[in-house]
Specification:
The radius of gyration is 42 Å and the shape is elongated. The chain is built from 3 helices and 14 strands. A hairpin with an 8-residue loop joins strand 7 and strand 8.
Length: 241
């Protein structure tokens, strides 16, 4: 009889427990890593053209406009007020400020705007600093981002039918603009932004008499085109001889 068999079986069983030779996987004692949290895209930005109103309690509201560039929370741009008599936005100065998340603040001249951005809307307050005898004032501000794209100078002149000279008016976004030169005239003169032929510019009796309100005066230095009833404007030299 073989008395060593049970001993071998027991030895193998103990060894298996000690060495973990079982094929069953062991559970890890370490906790699972935390699930990755998706980061929301940073879409908050004040870049754009903002138009709206400022309203002081007990007073009528006024229209305002801001052109803002938002460079990672650093704000810059221009401020405008509406001139009621012309119904045009007039630039009043530049602006600088900061934005943190949806909270923003900027200053322009003595005005300070602070508030909250929500998509294409901005609400807050505008504080006008005290000047001389005038105390500071606080107004409620409500702005909306507009998609209006300012036209070019050439388009501005074409829309207003200005083919020459300077032209000042509101552009397609309601902002006052002054274009220094809408074009030049190859002939004639620029009158009210239109090229007009010079009055009585004919060089022969035929071309002169064909112009409205003009007549050829043959007694003026051999012939000059003059307005009807006009006298010779120069002293003619005596004839050679």
């Amino acid at each position: 009889m073989n008395f060593h068999a049970p001993t071998l079986l027991i030895t193998c069983f103990v060894t298996a427990l000690a060495s973990g030779c079982s094929e069953r996987p062991q559970a890890s004692s370490n906790p699972p890593p935390p699930a990755a949290t998706a980061q929301a895209p940073l879409t908050d930005s004040l870049t754009g053209i903002w138009v709206g109103t400022m309203a002081i309690a007990g007073s009528t509201s006024a229209s305002i406009r801001y052109e803002i560039t938002d460079n990672n929370g650093q704000l810059s741009g221009n401020a405008f007020d509406l001139e009621p008599s012309r119904n045009q936005f007039i630039k009043t100065g530049t602006l600088t400020g900061t934005r943190t998340g949806t909270a923003a603040q900027w200053t322009s001249g003595g005005d300070t705007v602070s508030g909250t951005l929500s998509g294409d809307s901005f609400t807050g307050t505008l504080v006008v600093a005290a000047q001389g005898p005038d105390a500071s004032m606080t107004a409620q501000v409500a702005l909306e981002r507009t998609t209006c794209v300012a036209e070019s100078d050439a388009a501005f002149c074409t829309r207003l039918n200005a083919s020459c000279g300077q032209k000042a008016a509101a552009d397609n976004c309601g902002v006052r603009r002054a274009v220094g030169n809408c074009g030049s005239c190859t002939s004639g003169t620029c009158t009210q932004n239109q090229c007009q032929p010079e009055a009585c510019s004919g060089t022969t009796s035929t071309t002169c008499n064909g112009e409205s309100g003009c007549s050829w005066n043959s007694n003026c230095c051999g012939g000059v085109c003059l307005p009807l009833g006009g006298t010779c404007p120069i002293t003619c030299p005596p004839p050679e001889g």
